[in-house]
Amino acid sequence: MVPATDDLDARPTLRAGWPVLGEVVANLDTDVLHVILAPRAAEARVTDVVILDPSDPGSVRAGAIVLGVGVSGSEGDAIALADRAGRAGVAAVVLRVEGDVHPRVVAIAESHELALLTVPPEMPWGQVYSLLRTAMVPGARGDAEAAGVAAGDLFALADAIAAAVGGPVTIEDPQWRVLAFSNLGHEIDETRRQVILGRGVPPVWQQRLEDASVARALRAGEGVVRFDGGGDPSLAPRMAAPVRAGSELLGSIWVAEAGTPFGEDAEAALLSSARLAAIHLMAHRATEDIRRRTRGAFVREVLDGRIPRGRAADGWPLRTRGSFTALVFSARSATELVGTLDAERVLSVITLYCEDVDADAMCALVDDRFWALIPGERRAGRERTVGVAEKIVERVERAIGVRLAAGVGMTVSDVAEVPRSRRSAEQALKVIAEREGLGPVAHIDDVRAHAVLSELLHLAEAEPGLLAGNVERLVAHDAQHGTEYVETLRVYLECWGDAAEAARRQGVHANTLRYRVKKLVELSGLDLDDPDERFVAELQLRLRGDLGARGR
User: Fold this and answer.
1) In this structure, are strands 169-172 and 248-256 parallel, antiparallel, or unpaired?
2) Which residues of 494-508 are buried (b: 16+ CB within 10 A; e: fewer)?
3) Model confidence, pTM
4) What is the predicted pLDDT for the residue at 383?
5) Cα(415)–Cα(322) distance, rounded to whole angstroms?
6) Can you list the residues of the chain whose pLDDT is less than 50?
């Protein structure tokens, strides 16, 4: 139970600069945060997001959004928390529930004018906390403007800087990931092209920047840094300026010469732009964090088939009508993705290529796999989707050094059928992992037989009785007497009962083969005239062979 406390009136002074609850809620997608009750959403100031700690009276305080960790929406704990929070002047309480909140909880919250919010039961509390903290950042929706550019619109900012400085621009985060680039028609060199396509600076160039002390100067200083290309005549000279918020490095702005050497005016323009860019990078970071987490939660729900009924089509981040194809990407080795940075860069490349196919494509990292949901008509064909997957795999390996495998699922006709596409994409990915000689990309239609056998193989591992019967008796006889009747049966069935061809493959006379078949029938009890028994025998032989190979 949530303990009661009398020390509930020590309320901090709420500054006008704090966001109101309505703004925080508006910054989050309705698939993430459900509003049950919010009587003072336009006036209630939010000072913090806190996790309920029953042993700490300070975890329920005025102006906070309190996360009811461990509190059910239908039990006495929730009722006690709503009453305690309401008397303390809490802005809102968040419960993680499935179904309706208990009416008494709603009534108590209403009596205190306390906002009551819920999140889906499958959403981790850590993600809820991070989302709400990010949603408190002013301009999280990017509605404000700075220097004539909507806050957080980094591509518009890159164009503005390119026009002011006179060269092509890239805006990068502290880990060399490209956040945006200008597109004003400036001539660009091959290195810039590779950086943009790979959505990041390749490792070899990162090392060059470290060796030239450029990276250290950006991390430590506030002025413009020049880089002449490190002796590479194909690389245009560049300037870079760090973007800071106080002591924190938010990123950097890079500008390449476009035919005319940079002068002092260009340096001054870049430095001025870097100061203004801090507002945009902070707004972008807040917006992208919300979008990425919301997108990940949404894609996860669609893949699992959790599609709320009655939702207006324009309320979804993915259109609901028409066909869909699921793609799944996974690192071919567990050691290749070294951290969050690599994962974000990989996801960025996947998103770039998939959105090029369809602007409404949705991509997200779910657990340890990258997923893409591509809307589109069936007539587009699997060749296009497979081609996109192959380009992504090639680009990620070349630009980031991560080898991916990709499974392309079946195309389904409605968003509610996406789990079928997901399942088939996972099957194709599994076949790549289990079958030697396949390339890094497989469409389920091209590996369907292997996928079915793989499923049957796993089923046979779980249910050994599927391998029992006449074939099992033959296996036991061979093991006991050193005979090879199992192999004779396998070859005979593979040759569709053609004794001459089976004899040729085994290197014996046809009469010898016929004798062996007659003998194995007597020993096992098999009826090879029964098509069902022949089918089951061949299937059991194949599964036994695959299980034996896996055991080795």
Assistant:
1) antiparallel
2) ebeeebebbbeebee
3) 0.53
4) 83
5) 8
6) 1-16, 139-146, 309-315, 379, 551-552
Q: Determine if residue 142 is left, alpha or beta; phi over 0 gives left, psi from -120 to 50 gives alpha, anything else beta.
A: left
- Own/partner pairs, 538-541, CB within 8 angstroms, 24+ separation: 538/490, 538/493, 538/494, 539/456, 540/466, 540/467, 540/469, 540/471, 540/472, 541/471, 541/486, 541/489, 541/490, 541/493
User: E strands within 168-310?
Assistant: 169-172, 178-181, 225-227, 238-245, 248-256
Strands 169-172 and 92-96: unpaired
- Specify whether the CB–CB gap between 217 and 211 falls below 8 A: no
Q: What is the pLDDT of residue 10?
A: 35
Alpha carbons within 13 angstroms on the beta-carbon side of residue 42 total 0
Distance CA 182, CA 1 (A): 56
Residues contacting residue 43 through CB under 8 Å, at least 6 positions apart: 20
pLDDT for 35-89, tens place per residue? 999 988 778 888 888 888 777 777 788 888 999 888 865 578 889 999 999 999 9
Of 106, 91, 95, 87, the closest CA to residue 70 belongs to: 95
* 197-215 tens-digit pLDDT: 777 787 778 888 888 888 8
Pairing type for strands 145-146 and 48-51 reads: unpaired
- Residue 356: predicted pLDDT: 77
What does the longest C-alpha to C-alpha distance in the chain come to?
Answer: 100
Q: Helix, strand or coil for residue 127?
A: helix
Half-sphere exposure of 368 (CA within 13 A, CB side): 12
pLDDT for 365: 86
Establish how many alpha carbons lie within 13 A of residue 234's alpha carbon, considering only the half-sphere containing its beta carbon.
Answer: 5
Beta pairing class for 92-96 and 115-119 = parallel
**SS3 state at 520:** helix
Q: What is the pLDDT of residue 340?
A: 56
